[in-house]
Design a protein that fits this description.
Length: 475
């Protein structure tokens, strides 16, 4: 298999506890993980195997979440990282494994364990055999194992119900089902796909200072995406002209421009556009994205088309990072990874003055190939999009919203394009299906929209205090 996503909130009440008035903590995403729905984290780039004859299925995903809380001095009493979730289904049973780093609730001892059998998955009544295309498992009930309880630092006992798990994966050439390798349409790890690859492989006259290929990755702002798709705006975003969805970010590919190694300057224009639409007059389009670097500072520009503000090549954010100071290529590639970004005055206007100038926005990542043989970093592979009309799951919903100091309960709310559901793995439910009605188990990828709140101008660690007031010490 190649490409896919796993959506899991781990345990919603744990998220509320971490960001509430007791723990006064937060969480942050790692390794390209994103967020989706009211309280779910999205892990990406599935790799594994599937046997249609036996139904045996294994899918390992990338990304992680780091929770911290109960700060004492410069350390946190609550410190837990869950990453690289892997789902295995065989012989009528399922297990979710994950890498765990945790500080014991009682002793403070830090333990790091790879691929802990964290939770059992209820797959009863599901016939895993005979799949011929994209495989999706939706809202599988999960139960904490004894080993998982230990790795969870003692916050929960074995048998505790965790949030349900949903996942989808693509099959490739050589896998059961014979789905064509997505590489035929252009590797997602390179900006621009097949056409761009052909352009790069075509004979070119070597020109000093010319950019051979480039891509800029930017998610705009995590809580803005959450607001767009939440219950207030009830909107979506649409990617066009080659822009790509990386879950927690948008990739604008096919960069063209120039680079001056002596002056440490760079200028590049990119393909792709994104448009945010929704209720309350939300309609903001960003296109013709460009980046300029000078004197160790970068600026990201875009043509803005909105109801309240329209401007060509408006400077949206500035970003700084030590990698911008020297701006030297390594192995033919200039790479700037997650440079902190701040909103400009024009950027504030572009977003309807929802945020004041100087507001921290999502970081900017820039990859510039100055050598034709250099490859751009891979984009997180989310696999095929959800099928149109997929049944929405009532499970895993959270009563109310929370927000930590870094905006917990975030949502990656990218508007998935439709996929061909006619090739999806067929589902056969047995008598046990009656027990799973609330979980709505089906072989369809589900996107559960977040129970949103108005997007704040600034993130506040105490936003969750109202909801969590009176919370017990135990999450």
């Amino acid at each position: 298999m190649s490409g896919g996503r796993l959506d899991w909130g781990i345990k919603s009440s744990f998220q509320s506890y971490v960001t509430g008035p007791i723990a006064k903590g937060s969480w942050n995403l790692q390794g390209g993980a994103a967020t989706v729905g009211g309280s779910q984290f999205r892990f990406h780039s599935a790799k594994g195997s599937y046997d249609p004859d036996t139904g045996a299925f294994t899918a390992a995903f990338s990304g992680g979440v780091h929770f911290t809380g109960h700060k004492k001095g410069g350390a946190y009493a609550l410190d837990l990282t869950i990453s690289r979730p892997t789902v295995e289904v065989a012989g009528g049973s399922g297990t979710l494994f994950a890498d765990m780093i945790s500080k014991d609730k009682g002793t403070g001892k830090v333990t790091s364990t790879a691929q802990v059998p964290l939770a059992t998955l209820n797959v009863s009544g599901i016939n895993m055999k005979g799949g011929t295309g994209p495989i999706a498992l939706t809202t599988l009930p999960t139960t904490l194992t004894a080993q998982g309880a230990k790795a969870f630092a003692g916050y929960y006992t074995a048998g505790t119900q965790l949030d349900p798990v949903s996942l989808s994966t693509d099959l490739v050439t050589g896998s059961a089902g014979g789905k064509k390798d997505k590489a035929e349409d252009g590797p997602k790890g390179r900006a621009g796909g097949k056409d761009a690859a052909e352009d790069r492989n075509a004979p070119k006259e070597k020109t000093a200072g010319r950019i051979e290929d480039a891509a800029v990755d930017w998610g705009v702002r995590r809580t803005f995406r959450e607001y767009v798709s939440g219950s207030i705006a009830k909107g979506k975003w649409t990617l066009t002209s080659g822009a790509q969805d990386g879950g927690a970010l948008f990739r604008f590919p096919k960069g063209e421009g120039t680079y001056d190694e002596k002056k440490h300057t760079l200028s590049a224009d990119f393909a792709g556009a994104v448009r945010f639409t929704g209720g309350h007059g939300l309609d903001i389009g960003l296109s013709r994205v460009a980046v300029a670097v000078r004197d160790g500072e970068g600026t990201l520009y875009a043509d803005v088309a909105g109801k309240g503000f329209t401007k060509k090549k408006a400077p949206l954010v500035t970003f700084t990072d030590k990698e911008l100071t020297g701006l030297k290529p390594k192995d033919g590639l200039i790479a700037v990874t997650e440079a902190p970004a701040k909103l400009t005055a024009d950027g504030s206007k572009a977003f309807g003055s929802l945020y004041p100038p100087g507001t921290a926005m999502d970081p900017v990542s820039l990859a510039v190939a100055v050598d034709g043989d250099a490859q751009l970093p891979a984009l997180p592979d989310l696999g095929s999009a959800a099928a149109p009309g997929a049944k929405e799951s009532p499970a895993g919903a959270k009563s109310g919203s929370t927000a930590g100091s870094d905006g917990s309960a975030d949502s990656d709310s990218s508007s998935d394009s439709g996929s061909d559901s006619s090739k999806a793995l067929p589902i056969v439910l047995g008598s046990a299906a009656a027990l799973l009605v609330a979980a709505a188990v089906a072989f369809l990828l589900v996107r559960k929209r977040r129970q949103g709140r108005p997007e704040p101008a600034t993130e506040n660690a105490t936003e969750a205090s109202t909801e969590a007031s009176g919370a017990a010490e135990n999450p």
